[in-house]
Amino acid sequence: MKRILIIDDSPTEVFRFREILTKHGFHVMEANNGADGVTAAAAEKPDLILMDVVMPGVNGFQATRQISRSEHTKDIPVIIVSTKDQETDRVWGKRQGAKDYLTKPVDEQALIDAIHANIL
Q1: Angle made by CA atoms 20, 95, 52, in degrees to the nearest 5
Q2: What percent of the chain has pLDDT over 90?
Q3: d(CA 76, CA 49)
Q4: CB burial string 38-59: b at 16+ within 10 A, e below
Q5: DSSP-based three-state secondary structure for 88
Q6: Any idea what DSSP says for residue 108?
Q7: Among 11, 46, 51, which residue's Cα sits nearest to residue 29?
Q8: pLDDT band at 120 (very low <50, low <70, confident <90, very high)
Q9: CB 59 within 8 A of CB 53
Q10: Cβ(81)–Cβ(62) under 8 Å?
Q11: CB 30, CB 100: distance < 8 Å
Q12: Which fold has domain 3-112?
């Protein structure tokens, strides 16, 4: 069973992602801020990370950069899922190391397709 780490500070979003992912056979882990997400990624080595951008403290762009540049976590694909939907946000997210960028509210099939396209 593939393991996905959700890094998002919104309990509502985490609940929705968990519901979708478990329905599709994934094991779900959670972190509610960027700093905890970076730590969880290193400790748990998930198969993929879903990353919010707007979070207190370490934001999603910073956490993505840390994960994608760390020797221990650089092989874990990160998909940013954010309300920030400007082209500059997409470009910046990918520059930080994200493999894909989806905007909220995310379509269930688009999310599953992006996961399958990026999971190792």
Answers
A1: 30
A2: 99
A3: 7
A4: bebbeeeebbbbbbbbebeebb
A5: helix
A6: H
A7: 46
A8: low
A9: yes
A10: no
A11: no
A12: Rossmann fold (3.40.50)
